[in-house]
Amino acid sequence: MSSDVDVVVGTVGRPHGLRGEVTVRVHSDFPEDRFAVGAVLRADDAKGSPLEVTASRWQGDVLLIGFRGYTDRSRAELLRGTRLWARVQAGEDAEGGFHDVALIGLQVRVGGATIGQITSVVHNPAQDLLVVRTETDESLVPFVNELVPVVDLDGGFVEVVDLPGLFEDVPVEDVPTEDGPTEDVRAEDVPLEEN
């Protein structure tokens, strides 16, 4: 299942100094490899113009990079905001996470039964969400170990815990109103009783 994919490994920031170096906001778990002298990255998209790294150093927690052909501050300013792409092997990263492209297309199983397929990944501040297309709907599944304990890239599936309401509509129940008759409301709309 693993294959090579193009991913964003950094974004060029402001120029640094007068000799064409730029700051880079790193989006890679392996900056020493991705930004090593001699590495060739692509600008703006996977098919963009090649940028060869000619200098690479850390100044505190800021990565400074020099690229072939960008030897002064004015020329380096042209790179500001450029996304830097590299070809990597899709799969698990150094921190135990996964590249989006490795997850998209995997089957989603609950209790061993296939119920859908991952169509995309949404990155939220709290946690990533898997967008799962089922036969009838699309669901968001928090991508945390407690809910997705198995990710089998070679087998082509993820296993999701059988949690009521995760892949089905929230049940409607009858709730009495102040006037007496009942109305249909969703379970999440029912106020909690105070103790």
General description of the model:
With 195 residues, this protein is mainly β. It has helices spanning 31-34, 73-77, 100-103; strands spanning 4-16, 21-26, 40-43, 50-59, 62-67, 83-89, 107-110, 113-123, 128-134, 138-142, 150-152, 157-160, 172-176, 182-186. β9 and β10 form a beta hairpin. The termini are far apart. Mean pLDDT is 82; it is low at 170-177 and 181-190.
What keywords describe this structure?
195 residues, mainly beta, six-stranded antiparallel β-barrel, six-stranded mixed sheet, 3 helices, 14 strands, 7% helix
Task: Map the helices and strands.
Elements: E1 4-16, E2 21-26, H1 31-34, E3 40-43, E4 50-59, E5 62-67, H2 73-77, E6 83-89, H3 100-103, E7 107-110, E8 113-123, E9 128-134, E10 138-142, E11 150-152, E12 157-160, E13 172-176, E14 182-186
Parallel strand pairs: 7-12
Antiparallel strand pairs: 1-2, 1-6, 2-5, 3-4, 3-6, 4-5, 7-8, 8-9, 9-10, 11-12, 13-14
Number of strands: 14
In percent, how helical is the residue content?
A: under 10%
Compressed to H and E, one letter per element, the order equals EEHEEEHEHEEEEEEEE
The total count of helices amounts to 3
Summed over residues and divided by their number, the pLDDT gives a mean of 82
Largest sheet: 6 strands, antiparallel, barrel
Structural class: mainly beta
Q: Which regions contain 5 or more consecutive residues with pLDDT less than 50?
A: 170-177, 181-190
Cα radius of gyration in angstroms = 24 Å
